[in-house]
């Protein structure tokens, strides 16, 4: 059972009582009647889970898994983050561990050297609470002052005098977005029904289908997915979901025998986020869905069309009706299939259709864009910088694969580069630098497969390597794309490194 299993409705009502029973011994109410520390912060379900787990591990709190679940739910509901507050930071909950984060240098050096800065950017606290957090860090890990990016400065002084005011200003406890969300958040029953979804799984392709949501009592749902990949292979499964804070959707589903997690935010009849394998969070897909009572155009698959060619396009959404408009130069040849959730059409792009990214329209609906191109000018490897990890070989930690795609880019009439989409490519790896060549990283670090999936080497020392080192490596990832008689090459970097021993819910 994972940390966020199914919660019994009766238990949800016990949250408040549990908080008293389990936490009050150490967290007495203050003069305002608020439980000290606990009452002055807000965070995500994952954030609350980590705090309570720390109470268990470091402070001797004893609590059953069920009670902990009830408390995480209660705290995330009453002291969570509004959708707007978590925006731009969802990658941390969605476990997109190759994200290159953008924070100011001071936050990165002072706080982001041990964990992702999203850990604090996904919290809201009073200034006093940010201050307590700094003291807790130093008290708990006194050696932090002697580590790199600390011993060169007065860390505590800077943390208290500079970071605390910055954090209190950026991530203060009271935020109009939170009060607004508390008024607006819909009843869970509003989520019950049919959801049309579109997705893209790197190295596997586009997919679409319908997710049925039932239940809703106590914010618990039963769900079933019925979809398929562009090549027709089914994507089907069942599971259960739980809604935190009125929008944080977490589900466990089994898709074709594989356990997967859904981490979405649901707002205004739209669900968005990432779905990934529970045991291999690097294998996942971007997911967006719209409820059947909403008219919405979610995606066009594939998202590009070559000038002078004919192709089949699938429009995915909900409440779809009428004929799509792809703009000048792209002619609708035939409607092959039409339902409120899916529209399959045959289109033809004129040889002189203007290259560029254009908005697809269907009646009043729009949103997704279609890239019309004559030729590909550039190929980018995505992600451009990635980490894979050695593993298995008798150890408890599985390998973490690298998964790459080749993204084509073209140039429009104004000379502006635009994204065409994901193109088929041939894949290979080379030594990233001389050092990697000398150590024969290409030979030891793993194998690049035909589909852009890199399988890292086994964990543990390798007697065949210099000084019996492990199978780590520094590689150049190369994608070659054929387009109109030319071969274009894109390059990325892959660091193959050791296991992620400490793998908490928020990086
Ligand atoms: C045995 C004593 C003990 C119990 C029981 C306990 N805590 Fe704590 N708690 C602490 C201590 C000590 C700290 C300060 C150090 C720290 O943050 O780890 C703390 C800090 C906190 C903080 C502030 C953390 C931060 O990052 O600033 C929160 C929130 C919290 N506790 C929640 C809880 C909840 C919820 C429970 C009940 C499920 C609980 N605690 C039970 C001892 C306890
Ligand atoms: C020496 C490494 C290190 C540095 C530097 C560091 N942290 Fe942490 N931080 C940790 C660890 C380890 C935890 C995990 C505690 C746990 O297991 O809950 C943590 C937890 C946290 C949490 C979650 C606490 C909770 O229970 O809600 C926040 C927020 C946080 N850090 C913010 C910061 C900020 C802000 C800074 C800079 C002022 C900072 N950290 C600097 C190691 C560090």
Overview of the molecule:
The protein is α+β, with helices and mostly antiparallel strands and 507 residues long. The protein has four domains: 9-178, no CATH class; 188-291, Beta Barrel (Lipocalin), CATH 2.40.128.120; 297-373, Immunoglobulin-like; 378-497, Immunoglobulin-like (Sandwich), CATH 2.60.40.10. Helices cover 21% and strands 38% of the residues. It contains 13 helices and 29 strands. It has an eight-stranded antiparallel barrel. A four-stranded antiparallel beta sheet has the order 11-13-16-15, with no helix packed on it. Strand 8 (258-267) and strand 9 (270-277) form a beta hairpin. Helix 2 packs across helix 4 (65-78) and helix 9 packs antiparallel against helix 10. It starts with 8 loop residues before the first helix and ends in a 10-residue tail after the last strand.
Give a concise summary.
With 507 residues, this protein is α+β, with helices and mostly antiparallel strands. It contains 13 helices and 29 strands.
The major sheet is characterized as:
8 strands, antiparallel, barrel
Radius of gyration: 25 Å
Relative strand content: 35-45%
**Percent helix range:** 10-25%
List cofactors, ions and other ligands: heme C
Low-confidence stretches: none
Tally of separate helices: 13
- Spatial separation of the terminal alpha carbons: 21 Å
The number of domains: 4
Identify the quaternary structure here. Answer: single chain
Q: What is the total tally of β strands?
A: 29
Structural class: alpha+beta
Mean pLDDT, nearest integer? 95
Strand order of the largest sheet: 3-4-5-6-7-8-9-10
Q: What sort of overall outline do the alpha carbons produce when their principal axes are compared?
A: globular
